[in-house]
Amino acid sequence: MRLLITNIKQLCQVEIADGNKTRVSGRDMAVLPSIDNAWLIVESGRIHSFGEMRSLPETNADEVINADGCLVLPTWCDSHTHLVFAAPRDGEFVDRIKGRSYEEIARNGGGILNSARRLNKMSEQELYDQSLERLHNVMAQGTGAIEIKSGYGLCLEGELKMLRVIRRLKETSGIPVKASFLAAHAYPIEYKENKEAYIKLIIDEMLPVVAGEGLADYMDVFCEEGFFGVPATERLLEAGWKYGLKPKIHANQLHYSGGVQVGVKHNAISVDHLECVSEAEIAALKTGNTMPTLLPGAAFFLGMHYQPARKIIDAGLPVCLASDYNPGSCPSGNIPLLLSIACTQLKMTPEEAINAVTINGAAALELEMEMGTIKVGKKANLIITKKAPSLAYIPYDYGNSPILRVIFS
Any residues with CB less than 8 A from the CB of 214 and at least 6 apart, and which? Predict the structure, then answer.
């Protein structure tokens, strides 16, 4: 199958030079290499060639798309989601409007524990059907690779149910799906007075089964005051490494929790949230390759202060953006809307924001050799936008879908 796209107004995020771009950092995030008035050929699901229209070779194609006035980009790589869940938490949304805090709701059995109760009552098939519909929705919005976490089971059976659903999504969706094991998301009510027993349950009983069935790529921990502190996080990450599960961490969402430092120490692929970032966190991130991943959709929905993207970028570090799609603190996997929030509230330029959800998102999923840029040989997962005057129009035109067509190889 050969596809030819012609008359592309702007082919964005191209990679022409030899070598492999694995991420962009600091000042380089403001640069998004592009070709005006371009063509692109896809063959057998891979990017075959591309260039300026004046250089278009004679070629036969099974399908030709005239992208006159449209932009073409690589699909979004969403590296942090909780897309598999049983039910929305709209009641808690109203509670927060009335003045109850996220932490107060959690202390009273809401939040993650609310989702766990509902999930453990739902059949695996029903959970899969709902989750597949959500996945198709975000794919239609341009997401071409995604990470999905467990963490609403909080018991062996519930966590396995979630991870098996994620595996089915990986097998049936047609896009790359990475799974994170997040039993360390909260302490179940029955372990509220015996947290050590729950940590041992994760390490001694859950991890061997999860690893034995090959259900997860990553080990995640909610490293935060009131949840899992630094000592517990270290034990859990070390246990995960023994089974080949690389770390990803929820860090510094509510407090200066030490999560960034412990993540870097244990070679985490990413540390995610980062509402609370000081010079100590910046210094730690500079010592490793851990990707700082910001989730401004959650800050928006919870009415919290936003992550200091400018501070991180100006320190010469990379920034990744991800949706945090979940039923409680960010019930949206809409990446175009996330780009608008990043530009208006985090003061990221459109180029920085696009880099953060393409090449840096791919790096946070360890997919940077396959996705994230327009490069010969990479997967041809592509977005064709509606007619747009510029790249900046994508975040500018917030609330409206920029997507004309999404191509999945």
Answer: none
Q: Which two tokens stand for residue 147?
A: 């990470």
Do the Cβ atoms of 372 and 363 come closer than 8 Å? yes
Instruction: Check: CB of residue 262 under 8 Å from CB of residue 240.
Output: no
pTM above 0.70, yes or no: yes
pLDDT tens per residue, range 231-270: 999 999 999 999 999 999 999 999 999 999 999 999 999 9
C-alpha to C-alpha distances, 193 to 77, 158, 164, 313, nearest whole angstrom = 39, 21, 30, 41
Strand partners, 35: 11
β pairing state of 403-407 and 382-387: antiparallel
DSSP codes, 39-66: EEEEETTEEEEEEEGGGPPP---SEEEE
Question: What is the domain count for the chain?
Answer: 2
Whether residue 58 sits in one domain with residue 128: no
Can you give the residue range of the structural domain that contains 21? 2-74+373-407
Q: Contact 77/19 with Cβ under 8 angstroms?
A: no
Residues 275 and 341 both lie in one domain? yes
- Cβ distance 371 to 399 under 8 Å? no
Looking at the DSSP assignment, which residues form a beta bridge with residue 148? Answer: 179
